[in-house]
Fold this protein.
Amino acid sequence: MNSHLGIGMTSQRTRDRLIDRLREKGIANEAVLEAMRRTPRHIFVDEALATRAYEDTALPIGSGQTISQPYIVARMTEVLLGSGCPQRVLEVGTGCGYQTAILAQLVGEVFSVERIAPLQQRARNLLYELRLTNVRYQHSDGNWGWKKHAPYDGIIVTAAPENVPPELLEQLADGGRLVIPTGGQGQAQRLRLITRQGDEFNETLLEAVSFVPLVQGDIS
């Protein structure tokens, strides 16, 4: 019988098929793939959508937000890690907590900011259930980052601002990597990798993406 966390033959085979699809799409970091293989994505979505949890697609999670497509989660995580293992990572947009759960298995500490309190509280409960205890949470506007714990070796943003918030650049450590989608709602969005070298920020444009907007202010 499958438990709530989905530790069952059918569930595991379904996850394995998802990992095979991610490999086919070019995800090569085995640590990222293994973290996604062992993370029960179905507990992060509404029960009515649980049967679709291992499809490579984004799904609604309420409050006008979505759980990102697994490929995008894997791609952004792989880019964030680069060839190393960052110790301190800022996540802007806790959402349902799925991306948070993947990061928590791969980096030293995750500092996660979310503007919608009920979403973040549910994510906290799920990560506690998964025994992922290296995450700190802040209920605030993600555009501000979380200055108290800066600088960060990595910053990952799971919603799209029109432009990169300057506070996030300031909070990036020397040698750190920022992975962020940009482009307003209704505009073409691109995923960007920004690396810091002293006071210089080098940008690499990655693939086209589609994210909910990164809202300013109006925390709830």
Summary: The beta strands are 59-62, 65-67, 88-92, 109-114, 135-139, 152-157, 172-182, 189-197, 200-209. The longest strand covers residues 172-182. Residues 1-10 have pLDDT under 50 and may be disordered.
